[in-house]
Amino acid sequence: MRRALRVSPGGFYGWRGRPASERAPGSGALAEAVQGVHCASRARYGSPRVHAELAARGVPCCVNTVAKLMRRYGIAARTRRRFRLTTDSGHGRPAAENLLGRRSEPGAADRAWAADVTYIPTQVG
Asked: What is the pLDDT of residues 10-58, one digit of tens each?
């Protein structure tokens, strides 16, 4: 493992035998609190809102520490997708002709397929 991390043998064994810092237990408790607030917000809150919620609950922390913990544990806010208008009826391009001719029952199986592809984003809209 030390070769993969490119550290000296003495540095690796020194790190492995060193006790945890005084901040480590507090950091774990804060990470659990951050996770709890994030889950309670249905994964909508980012680090500023999570920090504000923790401050309202009386948990002493810094917004940068909250952001660092969220990055470390892969906690990220879900964002809403932007609404996009997909239909533009006022264009000058020709429309595809109706090959089915309003027949909802084709003569045999696998003869006519229909789908709505307006949800697929393209460069021209």
From this structure: 888 888 888 888 777 778 889 999 999 999 999 999 999 999 999 999 9
The reply to whether 115 falls in a domain is no
Q: How many domains does the chain have?
A: 1
Range(s) of the domain holding residue 33:
24-81
Strands (DSSP E) contained in 1-125 are none
- Of 109, 31, 22, 20, residue with least CA distance to 70: 31
pLDDT confidence of 125, banded at 50, 70, 90? low
**Token reading at 35:** 């996770």
Cα separation, 75 vs 49, in Å, equals 13
